[in-house]
Amino acid sequence: MAINHTILGMLSYQPLTGYDLKKRMQGSSFMPWSGNNNQIYKALLELTKYDFVTSEVVHQDSFPSKKVYTITESGLVELKNWAKSKPEAFEAKKPFLLQLAWGDLLSYEELDVLLSQYEREIEIQLLMEQKRPATKQLGRSRSPRETVLWELINDNIILSYKADLEWIKNARIALSKLHDSESVE
């Protein structure tokens, strides 16, 4: 249900359209969204059903009408209760690790190419994250503590990418040693 709470959190700042929500989630490196607009609208329907959000159709002269969603008092209570709930354990589901699980089918050279490609992707993600202002998704911060929290989230993401780069370096060393020992035999 993380997407529902993500939506409630963003609506706690200001009323937004489904499109606005999509753009903010798309611009985030940690907010849950599969890239499917239906996921957002399905969540909004569910949140409306539970009276956590309301919607209003806003008519525009030069553009099509748009539906703007606003968090309700019960939505704020739900968001706060969720924020206080027991944290979920970290999930390390990386498609690359699944590829690597069957890497024994590849030659050492092919494995090195695979690691290089992954390394480049991680370097790109790291650079993008380092350039992204921590509070960009918010537009504004409600308090100094909130600013620090978003900066800490950004730091966690950056450290994760740096840890992956360190892991790649160690993987290369381990595979190189194995290759060298097999070459001697």
For the sheet with most strands, the description reads: 3 strands, antiparallel
Strand order, sheet with most strands: 1-3-2
Radius of gyration using CA atoms only: 22 Å
**pLDDT average, as an integer?**
88
Structural class, by secondary structure, is mainly alpha
Uncertain spans? none
Q: What separation lies between the terminal Cα atoms?
A: 54 Å
Task: Describe what this molecule looks like in 3D.
The chain is built from seven helices and three strands, in the order αβααββαααα. The longest helix is centred in the C-terminal third of the chain and has 41 residues, at 144-184. It folds into two domains: 2-84, Arc Repressor Mutant, subunit A, CATH 1.10.10.10; 95-184. A hairpin with a 7-residue loop joins strand 2 (53-58) and strand 3 (66-71). It has 185 residues and is mainly alpha-helical. The model has no long low-confidence stretch (mean pLDDT 88). A three-stranded antiparallel sheet has the order 1-3-2. Helix content is 63%, strand content 8%.
